[in-house]
Amino acid sequence: VQLQASGGGTVQAGDSLRLSCAASGRTLRGYVVGWFRQAPGKEREFVASISYSGGSIEYADSVKGRFTISRDNAKNTVYLQMNSLQSEDTAVYYCAATPFFFTDYRTATYGSWGHGTLVTVSS
Predict the structure, then answer these.
(1) pLDDT digits (tens, 9 = 90+) for 16-29
(2) Is-contact 38 44, C-beta < 8 A?
(3) Among 6, 23, 39, 107, which one is most buried in terms of CB atoms within 10 A?
């Protein structure tokens, strides 16, 4: 499955952004989708993941209460609503998919990755 992340940009601290991850080539049916991010000079880290049904959702502690992951299976798209953005959220954000049943925070679990979208938060 091919993935394309979009929606990044430059915002002020406290602002919101919504990222989208659109799939092409095949449906996301049966796929867990995760969002990851990589800040300059740092390793890629887990942000959030969602099961196909949406019944299983997982967040990194650093974004709990501020970010919301959701999906519209009819549109073959997964979203990441990011509120109360902080300078520490500045990174390239990637979406990834894996044909698992349960959510997973490990990058190695995901076999399909999209190109990232840059989010810059200025303080």
Answers:
(1) 999 999 998 888 99
(2) yes
(3) 23
